[in-house]
Amino acid sequence: MGTEGRKDWQRRESLTSALVQVGVVAVLLAGAVVFFVHRGTVRKQTEEHLRAARTAAMRGNPADLARAMTELDALFQLDAEARDAQALAADIQTVLWLEHRQPGADAKAREHLSRAAQLESQSGERYGAHALHLLAAGKSAEAEQYLAGLEARGANNARLTLARALALQARGDLPGARQAFARAAEASWRDPRFTTAYGEALMDEGQYPQAVEAFAKATSVNPDHLLARVSTALAHTYQGRKMEEAQQVLSGVEARGAELTPGLKARAGALKAELALARGAPDEALSAADEALKAVPDEHYALFARARALAVKHDVQARAAFEAAVARRRNAPLLYLDGARALQTAGDTDGAVALLDAYEATFGPVQTTTPDGKKAGLLEKDSRYWLARGGVLEAASRQDDALVAYDKALAARGVELAQAQYAKGALLLARKDYEGARPLLAAVAPDSGAGTMAEAYTAMGDLLFAQGEHAAGCQHYFFGLARERAQGTPREALAERVEDIRKRLESAGQASMAKAWKAESSSLLE
Q: Where does the record place its TPR repeats (predicted)?
């Protein structure tokens, strides 16, 4: 009996125990399934939020960046330790801070960057943002060392290349910066941020057609990219082109109201000021520039517009205003070179020369790397600077000094070679050094009519008339007037020039040629 009872008890205990164990295992399995399903769901949701944030951020407008941050905030509710999401948030807030000047974005950018670093994110957003923060703190050399270390480890992406471009720009190596901007824009052409940055760098150098081309690539990806649209209009306005279109862009952007960040308001204000200057309204330009500077006190395009307006008014504060613009963006040739021309036009030759001297002091020590790997001084190849300096000195009646500057522009053999040949040739012509002027002008105003510079053909015509070669002179005048007509010179101005040449021929005893000139040149006035 006792033995059988124990066996029954053991059988009952074993059955109960087994059932309990099965239940425990089932619960554990169910919990595991729930856990893995939940984790999979969270992972899927975080990936969706991250993908949506990247897509929104790539459109580049403030509203897009805000939408991207909304996606990331939702992601952080699911997983606050998503390291690449923290890096992307740092990148977006850095753009809002440095490009759009959004209040409070700097603190958020640093917070997200610190979190991304703690979580050991290896994304380009983290490293690119850190380099930009170093540059913003004025630590250009440290930023270059940081980037060099990353590059030595094989890191290579558009954000690091953009940071490298900005570091080179800060150092004054504009050719190197230009190449890096171009590489970044090419590598990430779907993101208008990079092509817009390239366009701004070109505009800072006064290379307006190239800047417009870069901005066009940005708007081809996002036609509504506000910064690219306003900057395109500004570049056109600097060239005196497409004013009506620029005004339409300005009106459209201003209508966006609350959507505009301080950075966009300041850029739009600079455009408004330049359009007012183009209309001959310097007081309106001053008002618009001052309003822009309330949004961003160091917006250099607005500072530049303000200085230009003061120069047009012949205000004694113009020189100080240009110097203030230069102080905010030391490595923007536009501010020095065009500023010097504006001061010269206003009659402040000393101020113009001082601004050019400041340019030389800034860029004189800069060494660049030539295509063959050698080092060369930046100014040695800077024909734009020597041309600008020569022009200012010539207008100040310092012709010998101007010739020295023009010779340096010729020696640089840059893209402005033809302009340098014309500038020196025209100055020698004014000094009646016909033998010295002739080969220079012939190079840019060939007898075949293949030249493109109307002013060079006019100068060559003057030289030929002075030497009694009236028939050849008439031919060159015709080529020059034909190019002026193609460039949009009004018919009345062309007719005045035609008549002046006819009178000069008659005064030189060339009555029959004067009659032939009037008949032949009539086609230019049709």
A: 192-225
Q: How far apart are CA 364 and CA 141, in angstroms?
A: 19
404-409 contacts at long range (C-beta below 8 A, 24 or more positions apart): 408/383, 409/383
The Cα-based distances of 19 to 10, 14, 33, 327, 355 in angstroms read 14, 9, 21, 83, 93
Burial (CB count <10 Å: 0-12, 13-18, 19+), residue 148: exposed
Could you read off the pLDDT of 52-87 as tens digits, one per residue? 999 999 999 999 999 999 999 999 998 888 999 999
d(CA 343, CA 340): 5
pLDDT digits (tens, 9 = 90+) for 476-509: 999 999 998 888 888 889 999 999 999 999 998 9
The domains of the chain are located at 22-156, 460-526
HSE (CB half, 13 Å, CA atoms) of 463? 27
Helix (H, G, I), strand (E, B) or coil at 488: coil
DSSP-based three-state secondary structure for 459: helix
218 contacts: CB under 8 Å, gap ≥ 6 = 60, 192, 195, 196, 199, 225, 228
Return the DSSP state at 4: H
Cα gap 478→524, rounded to integer Å = 8
Q: Which residues contact 166 (CB under 8 A, 6 or more apart)?
A: 132, 135, 177, 197
Amino acid sitting at position 503: K
Structure-derived torsion over alpha carbons of residues 345, 346, 349, 350, reported in degrees to the nearest 10? -150
SS3 string, 66-104, reads HHHHHHHHHHHHHCCCCHHHHHHHHHHHHHHHHCCCCCC
DSSP state of 373: S
- Name which of 230, 169, 164 is nearest 202 in CA terms: 169
Look up the pTM and report it.
0.85
Closest CA to 326 of 290, 287, 352: 352
CA distances from 294 to 252, 274, 307, 392 (A): 21, 17, 16, 33
The answer to whether residues 268 and 292 touch, using CB atoms and an 8 Å cutoff, is yes
Strands (E), 283-372: 367-369
